């Protein structure tokens, strides 16, 4: 998926360009995120830690919301919360007026705890249980996305016990579009477990039109994630347009982020230009458009901070081993995602190193061939663009305590999730 260019020694602008806007170097050369020095953050919160530039995240939310409003009346931006399902992120994006996409009962509970207006919830999942759908209906979720015929049966049953209640729904369409991304995160192709191919979608639409409890508002399509080319998005819009005219079209997420120097994702504006032009060309003029960005909302506001434990030289590669790894960032092992990195106090490139984690697996690499300047034990390593899907996929492998999340803004930091403790690791034990 992402390009690899291990020998590249980045310029200051190249490397700083991967960090959240507003990052800079203190006079002594130490990296600052949201005005906060990396060394002071490490001292205060320990490592590994996930830092979030709060100003950058808010700015991105506004850029999406304003960008859609400027291009289309009545558009809705819904954050695909699986990308960063932490209460403080839900709260921040609720404050910014975004809608929220949830994909499970857990995300639903977190969204509600974060203050999301239930009417602004879009309820997803390819295997929604009675409990999840029941909770969604009970909360008053704005839209439920029908992925399969069992969703229809379940919802009908649940609503039968709530007289007078009606639930607005969308049908998730599998458009048979295959974007150029990692197989595991491509979802719109024939053979995907998500959604209904056009003939089945027509059948679901007919059934829903006959329902007196489910109100069919429109269609949903989501073709995958980390997509760096806009063409497949257009193809997806054209595919759903074949199903007739509806009031609402949720066009999903999927816009890729810039993880490496070689990645050239479309900007939010370019992406919205293409989507709204495709909608203009193929969908009813009055239809409400929803977009569901996950990764492109949060990825580049996040920075992971690690401490170097050991540097091993003399073999084929220089191994720089830090105190985190695949416990807090599974993107590399699951999808082969490339990340860049720097020593936080000696910003820039240097000798190519293999930046590895502390886990008992050779696949536990954070970045292969990453140029680091004179790395030594005790140094801090900053890995940019870790705001998406790292918190979500963090785990306790090797008894790792999941890291804290720290919001940084205007030189002030605040923890919004604390580091797990060893007691937390035993909290679910039944003795
Ligand atoms: N809408 C739906 C229905 C989705 O399933 C997803 C992501 C999105 C929106 C947001 O897509 P995004 O804008 O983030 O690309 N675990 C993988 C990513 C899986 C994405 C799943 N669905 C990873 O760590 O890269």
Question: Quick recap of the structure?
Answer:
With 431 residues, this protein is an alpha/beta fold. The protein has helices spanning 12-16, 38-45, 54-71, 87-95, 105-113, 130-139, 149-160, 198-209, 231-241, 268-282, 295-298, 331-335, 390-393, 422-426; strands at residues 24-25, 31-33, 36-37, 49-53, 76-80, 99-102, 121-123, 143-146, 167-172, 214-220, 248-250, 288-291, 302-312, 318-322, 342-343, 351-356, 365-372, 380-384, 405-409, 412-417. It folds into 2 domains: 12-53 and 299-426, Lyase, Ornithine Decarboxylase, Chain A, domain 1 (Beta Barrel), CATH 2.40.37.10; 55-297, Alpha-Beta Barrel (TIM Barrel), CATH 3.20.20.10.
Q: Count the E strands.
A: 20
Query: C-alpha Rg, in Å?
Result: 22 Å
| Bound small molecules, deduplicated | ligand LLP
Low-confidence segments, ≥5 residues, pLDDT <50?
1-7
Domains, number = 2
Distance between the termini: 45 Å
Helical amount: 25-40%
What form results from the Cα inertia axes? globular
CATH superfamily of the largest domain: Alanine racemase
Mean of pLDDT: 96
Beta content = 15-25%
Summarize the biggest pleated sheet: 9 strands, mixed
CATH topology of the largest domain: TIM Barrel
Per CATH, the architecture of the largest domain is Alpha-Beta Barrel
Helical region count?
14
* CATH class term of the largest domain: Alpha Beta
Structural class by helix and strand composition? alpha/beta
């Amino acid at each position: 998926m992402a390009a690899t260019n291990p020998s590249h020694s980045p310029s200051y602008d190249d490397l700083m360009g991967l960090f959240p806007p507003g990052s800079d170097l203190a006079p002594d050369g130490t990296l600052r995120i949201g005005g906060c020095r990396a060394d002071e953050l490490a001292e205060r919160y320990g490592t590994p830690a996930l830092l979030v530039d709060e100003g950058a995240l808010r700015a991105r939310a506004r850029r999406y919301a304003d960008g859609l409003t400027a291009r289309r009346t009545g558009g809705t931006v819904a954050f695909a919360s699986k990308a960063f399902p932490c209460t403080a992120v839900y709260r921040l994006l609720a404050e910014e007026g975004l809608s929220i996409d949830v994909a499970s009962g857990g995300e639903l509970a977190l969204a509600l705890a974060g203050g999301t207006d239930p009417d602004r919830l879009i309820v997803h999942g390819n295997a929604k249980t009675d409990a999840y759908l029941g909770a969604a209906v009970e909360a008053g979720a704005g839209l439920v996305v029908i992925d399969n015929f069992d969703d229809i049966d379940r919802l009908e049953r649940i609503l039968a016990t709530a007289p007078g209640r009606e639930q607005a729904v969308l049908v998730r369409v599998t458009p048979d579009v295959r974007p150029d991304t990692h197989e595991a995160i491509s979802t719109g192709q024939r053979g995907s477990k998500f959604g209904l191919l056009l003939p089945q979608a027509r059948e679901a639409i007919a059934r829903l039109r006959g329902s007196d409890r489910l109100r069919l508002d429109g269609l949903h399509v989501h073709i995958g994630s980390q997509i760096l080319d806009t063409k497949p998005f257009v193809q997806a819009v054209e595919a759903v347009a074949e199903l007739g005219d509806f009031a609402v079209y949720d066009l999903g997420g999927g816009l890729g982020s810039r993880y490496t120097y070689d990645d050239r994702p479309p900007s939010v504006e370019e992406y919205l230009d293409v989507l709204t032009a495709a909608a203009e060309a193929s969908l009813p003029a009055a239809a409400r458009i929803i977009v569901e960005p996950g990764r492109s909302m949060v990825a580049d506001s996040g920075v992971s901070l690690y401490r170097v434990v050991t540097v091993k030289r003399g073999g084929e590669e220089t191994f720089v081993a830090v105190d985190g790894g695949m416990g807090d960032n599974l993107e590399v092992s699951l999808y082969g995602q490339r990340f860049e990195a720097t020593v936080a106090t000696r910003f820039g490139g240097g000798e190519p190193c293999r930046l590895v984690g502390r886990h008992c697996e050779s696949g536990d690499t954070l970045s292969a061939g990453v140029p680091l300047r004179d790395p030594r034990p005790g140094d801090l390593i900053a890995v940019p663009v870790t705001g998406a899907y790292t918190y979500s996929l963090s785990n306790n492998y090797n008894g790792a305590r999941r890291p804290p999340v720290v919001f940084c803004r205007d030189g002030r930091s605040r923890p919004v999730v604390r580091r797990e403790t060893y007691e937390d690791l035993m909290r679910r034990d039944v003795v």
